[in-house]
Amino acid sequence: MKSYRVPQLAKKYVEYDMIQQHTDMPSFPESRARLLFAFLNRSGDQKDGRDELYPLVTSLVQMGLDTHDMIDTAKEMPSPSKMRSRQLKVLAGDYFSGRFYQLLAQAGSIDAVAMLSKAVCDVNESKTGMYRSMCKFLMPPQEYLNGMAVLKKRLFISFTPWIRESDRKLWESLLQEFSLCDTLAEELTRLEAAERSRFSFAFWGLLEKGTAEEKELLLNGTLDGKSWRQLLLKYKVGDLLADKLDAVLGRIRGILSEADDKDREEFGRMTEPFLRLIHTPGTAVREG
Predict the structure, then answer these.
(1) Measured over all CA atoms, what is the biggest interatomic distance in the chain, rounded to whole angstroms?
(2) CB 104 within 8 A of CB 53
(3) Which residues, including other chains, have CB under 8 Å from residue 118's CB and lie 6 or more apart?
(4) Cα–Cα distance for residue pair 54/62, rounded to 1 Å
(5) Which Gene3D superfamilies match (predicted)?
(6) First CA to last CA distance, the chain
(7) What is the DSSP letter of 224?
């Protein structure tokens, strides 16, 4: 099996000084891209480097969608720096999506263009449903997590027909669990971001458990950063997320226990960044 280098190939498309200096960007979908590469490679789909091309373009589309999700939609007039950040996110998201079409067209992979375009439509439709529920404040925290994981895996699961049939059960199981890992890791890193709290597990968890007064502050958007952190500590939101992530990693170990030694080693290594996130002291993950 050839070496995995999709993140290196993506750098030329996602690392621009202006973007990095003036706005934040979503994380590269490392685990999902690596899974797709591994299973396409095992399927023998190496013609013209497509085992690298498909994870690359799917990651670019994912980053385009994620970048647009990060756009600040506050109604008040933003500062010049926030306005620049907003504009760059719009342009960057469009750019990533444009590169997806260009790279697949150059490779003559029109069928992949159609397949991923359909997946993007499905993602946007699912997001619309979630946002409607959020606007009505009808979003149980576990439902939020599950919904976000579905969004994260939708583009990648499109390639299931191109995965070797004998591998599909393992592929689908691992993609499901690693999509949950990515979701939980993202939620853990967002705990301190009170200004983005309404669209997070922490917000929905606190809204479910909080007192009437705390719920009113959350619903009115009048909770300051200090009060937000106090609520996170009070309800041990970081501990809860870390425990959920640990449980998912346990399920991955269970799945791999039935796989061969090579798969246990290869896919087991992919859990290491998530284990480090759980066990890193002095972070927002463990508040005790």
Answers:
(1) 60
(2) yes
(3) 158
(4) 12
(5) 1.20.120.1450
(6) 44
(7) -
pTM to 2 decimal places:
0.89
- Examine the pLDDT at 286 and tell me if it is beyond 60: no
Look up the domain containing 167 and give its range. 6-189+236-279
Query: Structurally, how many domains does the chain consist of?
Result: 1
Tell me the pLDDT tens digit for each residue of 235-265.
999 999 999 999 999 999 999 999 898 899 9
CATH code of the domain containing 183 = 1.10.600.10
Residue 198 lies in a domain: no
List the alpha helices (DSSP H) in 140-198.
Answer: 141-157, 168-189
CA dihedral (112, 36, 64, 127) positive or negative: positive
Angle formed by the axes of helices 80-106 and 110-135, nearest 10°: 150
The tens digit of pLDDT for each residue in 124-148 reads: 999 999 999 998 999 999 999 999 9
Q: By the 8 A CB rule, do 91 and 44 touch?
A: no
